[in-house]
Amino acid sequence: MFPPWQLKGLDLSHLFEPDNLVDAEEIGRTIGESIVVPTLTVEERPKETIIVDKQDFPVVSVFKIIDEDTSGELIEMTIRSPSSDFSIDVISDNRVLLSRAYTDLTPLSPQSNWIDAFQEAGGGDYVLHLTELHWAHSFYVAVVVSTTITFSNIWAVYKLRSELARGV
Questions:
Q1: Is the pTM for the entire model greater than 0.70?
Q2: Model confidence pLDDT, tens digit, residues 110-119
Q3: Are 47 and 72 in contact (CB under 8 A)?
Q4: Domains (ranges, CATH) in the chain?
């Protein structure tokens, strides 16, 4: 078997003689002196806090609590209703996280770290509490009813990345 440089009748073996080899460290120093590495500064994006607070709020069919097309995080949301006859839709980055009736959520509540559904003591309001959800591109939360319900309170606090919210 011939070395590759001799296959076509060329003898390039003289290139590999010790006098013709260049020290790899010398090449590294020479190249390193001519390369300029730009400095990259990374700043954390400030976040804009948004609060939704509806008291004694009637919902006829669908109420969009949050509908955002930018990254952010839900800090917490509480829905209080005199009726358990409502559903909740939560869609994060085009993925359905939750689309269920309130009554389906109460059994999930003890096993979930982000869903809490219960009835207040003494036959009070039905409460749905959601916490700590993050999204990269879009987030949607809506309450859905089949008959008009006046919610005692619909409250949410969430943060958006300010530059993205303003289209920067």
A1: no
A2: 888 889 999 9
A3: yes
A4: 4-34 (no CATH), 47-165 (2.60.120.1390)
